[in-house]
Amino acid sequence: MRGTPNPLLLALLGLQVGLLGLDFGKVGLTSAGGIDLGRWLVILPGQVLIGAIVLALSPQLWRRLRTAPALLLGAWLIWNLIGVVWSVDPRQTLLQSFGALNLWLGGLWLVSRYGAFTFFRLTSRSLAAVVALGIGYQYVIGIDRDTGRLEGLSEGFNQFGVQCAYGLLVTIAARTAQKASTGTTSRADIWIMALFSVALFGSGGRGALAATVVALVLYFVLTSGRKLLRARVAAPVFVVVAGVAFALSQGVATFSRGNDNALNGREIIWSHAWSLIQGAPLRGHGMMAGLSLWTEAVVQGLVDFTPGSAHNMYLEVLVGGGTIGMALFASAIGATIFGLIRGRQWAAISLLVITLTTGLVESLIARPALTHWVLGGMVALAAIRPRNGARSASPDLEAQQPILEPESARLA
């Protein structure tokens, strides 16, 4: 047994995850000088959380930190912090990179200490609460209601779509794990899946929607083999289809972009991002400093609006961390994929599909974001393998063992 998580700890972690889905400017929590006051509300509790984790570091976490995926991704995050020395906006680089490191460690620790089921359940519940609140707020207050696209309280349609994509998959993964271990599941999961389905389709985020469909198909195939129609797969599929149908029937789903350009101006952003990369190819301009870079680009007339990031995860890494940062990031992702395949961690592989695919048109890591939390969980899962080489259809860690055995077990 891994033990029962402390409710207060889960509440703090859940608050961290939930607040990452909010655009604090929509509720007036902004400040001058380039610092978003709302981000302090997310990051500052996280610094306290890091202290609690350091005081209570478990042997499981230390073992995870010694695996290749954790070492490489940790090195990438440390490189981002070192970038404070040459960053064009050192304050943002320090604050935001430290927050990203905090989220990554939080996800890594939670999976290592309490298992995948707790990680998936906590993430799905936190995101569901924020999505439901945002949709309610949108239709009461009227934020972008005329567009017919759901955005809630997120930073935009695309980011809202990514939140729902993650939320839908982790809810299904948690339900699968619970069904495999106890034979029963929570009815709340049905409603949560329906909520994410409606919100995902209603957001009009084409990239997130396409990535989610691919990830869900992949997950169902990998976990079910030839038995695709058995109940634990049929129920989520039915809920997703019903959610999409409901979104269409209510007229909340649209994919209009406001112009005929499918890239929506991204080609201009990507062109300037490439120019920035050529200006500092080795070490970059400082991670998390994109707002300053793109504001300057607007002032110079190089782009006609302030995108805030490169709108591409890979370009963002190159702009902020240079080729050194990109090498560390790519190596970490590669090592994680290898570990997940070896451990048959199909839920995490599916989450990675969403991240890597949506990352082609969205940064996802421009600031402390939900992706950093998810990466922490995936890195922890990459250090797990099924016992006795058994084929695992469940993302639940309780049925699996760590690659690095405890010292006492090796001595025995």
Overview features:
16 helices, globular, 412 residues, mainly alpha
Distance between the termini: 21 Å
Question: Can you tell me the overall shape?
Answer: globular
Determine the strand fraction and express it as a percent band: under 5%
Main sheet properties:
2 strands, antiparallel
Give the helix proportion (percent range): 55-70%
Helix/strand order, N-terminal first? HHHHHHHHHHHHHHHEEH
The gyration radius over C-alpha positions equals: 21 Å
Helix count equals 16
- List how many beta strands DSSP finds: 2
What class do helices, strands and sheet pairing give?
mainly alpha
Reading side by side through the largest sheet, how are the strands ordered? Answer: 1-2
| Mean pLDDT across residues | 79
Low-confidence region ranges? 388-412
Description:
There is one protein chain. By secondary structure, the protein is an all-alpha fold. Helices cover 66% and strands 1% of the residues. It has 16 helices and two strands. It has helices at 7-19, 37-55, 59-65, 68-82, 90-114, 116-141, 157-182, 188-203, 206-224, 231-249, 266-279, 290-299, 313-343, 346-358, 370-381, 407-411; strands at 384-386, 400-402. It has a two-stranded antiparallel ribbon with strand order 1-2. The two termini are 21 Å apart.
